[in-house]
Amino acid sequence: MILEGAARVFGNNIDTDLIIAARYLAETNEIELGKNLFKDLRPNFINEMNKGDIIVAGNNFGCGSSREHAPLAIKGAGISAVIANSFARIFFRNAINVGLPIFVTSENLRSIEEGDLLSINASEGILVNKTKNKTYKFDPYPEFLLNLVEIGGLFNFTKNRLEAGV
């Protein structure tokens, strides 16, 4: 899995209320949720980003409530992946469940700037900042998690297994 897009840079402790505000939680459709992504933090974010862009963050991304709406909104907006130094555990699990690729790296990502062109090789655990010709490493997913994300998450995985009679 190779993902490419412009960097959309955030700092530390980006909580689920900043990702998708509570007033939008009556919605469950990921496309509709995505229209309000980061509305309170960066009101014009949706108009500034392009489908396929990659969120780059610091520590504790997705902290706060355990709402599944947060990774759904990110996915629904068209973000291709999130890479950060750490994620809240429940956010990480919810992201995998909905098929949003997220990656953890111990490398310092502060040199990545808004708009830098990034490429992620999920299988090899490599992030390349093509704008600055700099490479970062992360632990790649085990094959079963990579497959789960590639097919769109736990729902699609279960549906496929049921249809196959497994």
UniProtKB/TrEMBL annotation:
Entry's transmembrane regions: none
Encoding gene (name): leuD
Description of how the protein assembles with itself and partners: Heterodimer of LeuC and LeuD.
Pfam families: Aconitase_C
Span of domain Aconitase A/isopropylmalate dehydratase small subunit swivel: 50-100
Pathway listed: Amino-acid biosynthesis; L-leucine biosynthesis; L-leucine from 3-methyl-2-oxobutanoate: step 2/4
NCBIfam families reported in the protein's UniProt record: LEUD_arch (TIGR02087)
Organism per entry: Thermodesulfobium narugense
Protein name: 3-isopropylmalate dehydratase small subunit
